[in-house]
């Protein structure tokens, strides 16, 4: 006897669970957040210590360059290594190295025997660690969460990062004022132990079957560069990112600390304006998690306009609240963009070349940083106001050029 087949309607695609429901993601988030809180002590303490020892913006710029140069030079190698070795293990090794370096500097400061060349050595060591840990961190996240969860995961991670930057700098400035710079470095060293412990318990990414025999490191790097060259929108975005970073890295890295020192003469003021920028980044990151941007290219060319105007205004503002408000707006613009662009790139590239392609992006972002820091240090020595205004004007010009490029406008 024949039976009729009753068609069963397909169930609608289920919305992926939020990454915060995943215990592995929560573990990474917790360890990383504590480590980032410790980093705020370092980020306030280092420029303040340099200015105390030398009183020179040029010295501060060159010390920051000591980290930026190995970071830029070795970043492509870091991406290639991330595609060969577990990104989790790379992150553990670099965090361990940072712990040792920062603890050593803290001890030297505490004993009052620190010399300026040792700060150059610390910055250089951190730059080498960054060159390997940055690509590994970006390559590890897509293996920990689902593809559809990447925007939410990046939003949570960046929002948490901004929260630590809000909560950390002002207390770090008060800690430095009350107990001295050494304790800020000691706390940073202790904080690295938490991310090391978290990574120890997390799983390694699933191995990706090799489509071809493993190449030498140089050939592997060239393969990543070729992948970017063939992807026109990706290459155009990376070129734009490199120019934006050149216009902002030096003025923010050198200019803000010098502005706080010369206009307000307080590490607490420096901590507060850094916190204001982070608060803006938090707002932008939270907005990115809730707002689905359909034309990311238009977003990318609009943000440099906002940042350029704000950057130029910083040189003319005399009140702490005005500086903080301007940095709040800059941070919000950057935070919104960063989440969507990072997620778009992580979703776009293939797992087998993920580390190398992400390292190319980071070279685009950080490669010009040494020159930006050097130029900013020299311009600050000439005129703090003109340094900010020139950087803002160049950024506005870049925004106009980017808006005329069809591959950038069409990024979805």
- Terminal-residue CA separation: 55 Å
Q: Spans with pLDDT under 50 lasting ≥5 residues?
A: 1-13
Mean pLDDT comes to 79
- Describe the largest sheet: none
* Domain tally: 1
CATH fold-level topology: Growth Hormone, Chain: A
CATH superfamily: MFS general substrate transporter like domains
Task: Tally the beta strands.
Answer: 0
CATH architecture designation: Up-down Bundle
Counting helices, strands and paired strands, the structural category is mainly alpha
CATH class: Mainly Alpha
Description of the structure:
The chain is mainly α and 412 residues long. The chain has helices at 23-54, 57-82, 87-110, 116-144, 150-167, 169-179, 181-201, 217-230, 232-264, 267-290, 296-314, 320-348, 354-366, 369-382, 384-403, 406-409. The chain has a single domain (21-204, 220-409), classed as Up-down Bundle (Growth Hormone, Chain: A), CATH 1.20.1250. Helices cover 80% and strands 0% of the residues. Helix 3 (87-110) packs antiparallel against helix 7 (181-201) and helix 14 (369-382) packs across helix 15 (384-403). The protein is globular, with a radius of gyration of 22 Å. The N and C termini lie far apart (55 Å). Residues 1-13 have low confidence and may be disordered.
Question: How are the SSEs placed, and which strands pair?
Answer:
Elements: H1 23-54, H2 57-82, H3 87-110, H4 116-144, H5 150-167, H6 169-179, H7 181-201, H8 217-230, H9 232-264, H10 267-290, H11 296-314, H12 320-348, H13 354-366, H14 369-382, H15 384-403, H16 406-409
Helix pairs in contact: 1-2, 1-5, 1-6, 1-7, 2-4, 2-8, 2-9, 2-13, 2-14, 3-4, 3-7, 4-13, 5-10, 5-12, 6-7, 6-10, 9-10, 9-11, 9-13, 9-14, 9-15, 10-12, 11-12, 11-15, 14-15
């Amino acid at each position: 006897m024949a039976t009729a087949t009753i068609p069963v309607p397909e169930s609608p695609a289920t919305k992926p669970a939020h990454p915060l429901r995943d215990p592995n993601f929560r573990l990474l988030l917790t360890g990383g957040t504590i480590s980032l809180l410790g980093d705020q002590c370092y980020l306030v303490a280092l420029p303040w210590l340099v200015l105390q020892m030398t009183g020179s913006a040029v010295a501060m710029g060159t010390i920051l360059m000591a980290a930026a140069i190995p970071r830029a030079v070795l970043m492509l190698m870091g991406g290639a290594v991330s595609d060969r070795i577990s990104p989790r293990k790379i992150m553990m090794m670099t965090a361990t190295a940072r712990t040792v370096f920062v603890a050593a500097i803290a001890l030297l400061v505490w004993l009052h025997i620190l010399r300026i060349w040792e700060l150059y050595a610390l910055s250089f060591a951190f730059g080498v660690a960054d060159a390997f840990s940055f690509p590994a961190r970006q390559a590890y996240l897509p293996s920990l969460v689902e593809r559809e969860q990447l925007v939410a995961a990046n939003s949570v991670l960046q929002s948490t990062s901004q929260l630590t930057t809000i909560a950390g700098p002002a207390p770090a400035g008060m800690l430095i004022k009350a107990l001295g710079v050494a304790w800020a470095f000691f706390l940073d060293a202790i904080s690295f132990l938490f991310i090391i412990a978290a990574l120890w318990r997390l799983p390694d990414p699933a191995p990706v079957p090799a489509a071809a025999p493993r190449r030498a490191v140089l050939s592997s790097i060239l393969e990543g560069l070729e992948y970017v060259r063939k992807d026109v929108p990706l290459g155009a975005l990376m070129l734009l990112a490199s120019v934006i970073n050149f216009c902002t890295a030096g003025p923010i890295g050198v200019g803000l600390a010098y502005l706080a020192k010369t206009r307000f003469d307080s590490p607490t003021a420096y901590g507060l304006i850094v916190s204001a920028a982070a608060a803006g980044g938090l707002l932008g990151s939270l907005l990115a998690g809730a707002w689905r941007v359909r034309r990311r290219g238009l977003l990318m060319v609009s943000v440099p306009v906002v940042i350029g105007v704000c950057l130029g205004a910083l040189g003319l503002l005399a009140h702490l609240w005005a500086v903080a408000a301007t940095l709040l707006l800059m941070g919000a613009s950057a935070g919104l963009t960063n989440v969507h662009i990072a997620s778009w790139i992580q979703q776009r590239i293939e797992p087998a070349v993920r580390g190398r392609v992400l390292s190319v992006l980071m070279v685009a972002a950080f490669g010009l940083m040494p020159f930006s820091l050097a130029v900013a240090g020299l311009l600050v020595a000439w005129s703090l106001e003109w340094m900010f205004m020139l950087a803002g004007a160049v950024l506005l010009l870049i925004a106009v050029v980017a808006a005329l490029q069809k591959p950038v406008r069409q990024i979805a």
